[in-house]
Design a protein that fits this description.
There is one protein chain. The chain has 2 domains: 1-37; 41-240, Rossmann fold (3-Layer(aba) Sandwich). The protein has 8 helices and 10 strands. It has helices at 3-13, 17-35, 54-62, 64-89, 91-94, 108-115, 163-173, 205-216, and strands at 40-43, 46-49, 98-102, 119-124, 134-136, 149-154, 174-185, 200-202, 219-229, 232-240. A hairpin with a 2-residue loop joins β9 (219-229) and β10 (232-240). The longest helix is centred in the first third of the chain and has 26 residues, at 64-89. Bound molecules: S-adenosylmethionine. S-adenosylmethionine (SAM) is lined by residues 61, 64, 103-105, 108-109, 123-126, 138-140, 155-156, 159.
Length: 243
């Protein structure tokens, strides 16, 4: 965080634990207000951020990296360790050799998968400059051939423009018997408030899970409650493409 921003925060919230709690509450109230605004359209059990065009969606998503670069530097080691811990605990993943990571940003999850011995690569609309782990790409249209990967990992479902297309592409590139390992927040009906870059949101985690299962023709193999993480209450689900 820059010096002036730090000073502004101290003047506004004070210092110490109570100040941090006040800042979090303020941030949450702002997000809740924006979620109720005209920027989101409710559609049954889902909510979608309004974009005037697909191009606007892509530009918006690609613009996120610049704003989180400082924070990423601070949380990098912890994020890597947490990926490593969760991936090591996922037994179906251990049987998979190649893993494609969708919405992988700078590639922290890709590096964790390498550490565990997988062949892994990510794609992202904005992987930053000269990123050896993540290729530029859009997860609504993957360049990889049908049935070419053992597993897909994503924690970017809340950044999807069209869930049907994204899960359709995931299914297409997965080999029969392959898995989709997905991590996602609980829904707006469960107290989660989406932030400024989320493009899709769901009423609750079960609704999203069922939608993915149906679109992909997957079976649900494992559900893990990840508890309260930096990104709120989260769930990890293993979907399998039938052989
Ligand atoms: C919540 S971040 C997750 C980043 C990373 N997986 C991590 O845990 O550090 C979501 C990422 O999805 C990317 N993204 C958004 N829309 C995308 C799209 N259509 N195709 C590929 N990546 C996209 C964003 O650029 C962002 O890096």
């Amino acid at each position: 965080m820059g010096f002036m921003k730090r000073v502004r925060n101290i003047l506004r919230y004070g210092v110490g634990d109570q100040a941090r709690a006040r800042k979090r509450a303020d941030k949450r109230a702002g997000k809740a207000q924006r979620f109720e605004s005209e920027r989101w359209a409710r559609d049954g059990d889902f909510a979608r951020r309004r974009y005037d065009s697909y191009d606007e969606y892509i530009q918006h998503q690609a613009s996120k990296l610049a704003g989180v670069a400082d924070r990423l530097r601070e949380t990098e080691t912890r994020d890597f360790d947490q990926f490593l811990e969760r991936f090591s605990a996922c037994r179906p993943l251990a049987e998979m050799r190649s893993v494609l990571c969708l919405g992988a940003r700078l590639g922290t999850e890709v590096r964790a998968l390498h550490r565990l011995g997988h062949f892994a690569v990510g794609i992202d609309v904005n992987p930053g400059d000269e990123n050896p782990y993540v290729l530029p790409g859009d997860f609504h249209g993957l360049v990889f051939p049908d049935g070419s990967v053992d597993a897909v990992f994503t924690n970017a479902l809340d950044h999807v423009f069209d869930l049907e297309r994204m899960i359709g592409e995931t299914k297409r590139v997965l080999r029969p018997g392959g898995i989709l390992l997905a991590e996602f927040e609980l829904g707006f009906g469960e107290g989660h408030v989406p932030g400024d870059f989320e493009a899709t949101h769901w009423k609750n985690a079960d609704v999203l899970m069922e939608q993915i299962r149906q679109i992909g023709g997957f079976t649900v193999e494992e559900i893990v409650d990840l508890g309260n993480t930096r990104r709120g209450q989260r769930r990890q689900v293993v979907f399998r493409r039938p052989s």
